[in-house]
Amino acid sequence: MPARDRLLAVLVAVLWGGNFLAIHATLGQFPPVFAGALRFAVIALPTVLFVPWPRVKLRHLLGYGLGFGTGQFAFLFIAMDTGMPTGLASLVLQASAPFTVLLGAVLLRERVSGRQLTGILLAVAGLSAIAWQQAGHAALLPVILTLLAALSWAFGNLSLRRAEPDNPLHLTLWMSVVPPLPMFGLSLVLEGPAAQWRSLSTLATPTGLVGVAGLAYVVLLGTVAGSGIWTTLMRRNPAGVVAPFSLLVPVVGLTASYLVLDEQPSRLEIVAAAVVIGGVLIGSLRRKPVLAPEEELLPA
């Protein structure tokens, strides 16, 4: 994986780590599933009007949209709305990385190297330590919902790999066309039109303005910028190489939650976060080939 792609993967981790604060702000104003529907609806309309079709098979687009979009964010938003702490949500959601590696190996027959496996196991150990430390602060149902969001993300990653788009950004934008209708329908059933209207009619309040700002971050930085870069990386590199970088997201999320929401990490969590970073580096770096003496003398 080139150094440029590693830097881009780290940037996505920062954007997605900050995304959890934005989601926290958004859920202060909008019902969770309705918030997810709005997130994608504001992207879907201009996409249909102005963005060319990404020239991928429809089943891959639907799989990506239903997995990465509908499933991930419906489960995640409901989990956070029902008590999942912001920092813990950013941690548990990164189970998508080992899910992706496992599903990629089983369904796409992607090879997992010993170094990648070691890095994944090390990072998962760090995540497990953080989860063990914070598990007492979250009810079981929100944790299960967040794990289901991670599994949905992993299935979306596999559809993305199979799609092989000519323009990854176009695919990311067209993916946003899939979630609004099923999420609006789910919101009507679970939350009701009254809650939807109440959230829209109070946008001018201080809480409403914060919620709109959070939604704008989620749309522009979390979805368009972050997902667009991630899509490009997944297209250029094997899923098992790119996916471990998502394990950096909880480090950013936990830090941001500490600074903004006063969710204070323990010493164990700080050490475990360092282990996660180490695992990501081990899993992503590849050993350089050893050159023969005569090869070292060849001009670049």
Detailed description of the structure:
The chain is an all-alpha fold and 300 residues long. It has helices spanning 3-27, 32-50, 58-81, 86-92, 96-107, 114-134, 140-163, 168-175, 180-190, 192-201, 206-236, 239-242, 249-261, 267-284, 293-296.
Q: What's this model, at a glance?
A:
This protein is mainly α.
Helical percentage: over 70%
* Rg, nearest Å: 20 Å
Tally of contiguous helical segments:
15
Q: Specify the overall morphology.
A: globular
Query: What's the mean pLDDT score?
Result: 84
State the end-to-end distance: 20 Å
Task: State the secondary-structure class.
Answer: mainly alpha
Main β-sheet description: none
Order of helices and strands: HHHHHHHHHHHHHHH
Total count of strands: 0
What share of residues are in beta strands?
under 5%
Parts with pLDDT < 50 across at least 5 consecutive residues: 288-300
What's the SSE blueprint?
Layout: H1 3-27, H2 32-50, H3 58-81, H4 86-92, H5 96-107, H6 114-134, H7 140-163, H8 168-175, H9 180-190, H10 192-201, H11 206-236, H12 239-242, H13 249-261, H14 267-284, H15 293-296
Helix pairs in contact: 1-4, 1-11, 1-13, 2-3, 2-8, 2-9, 2-11, 3-7, 4-13, 5-7, 6-14, 8-11
Key traits:
300 residues, globular, mainly alpha, 0% strand, 15 helices
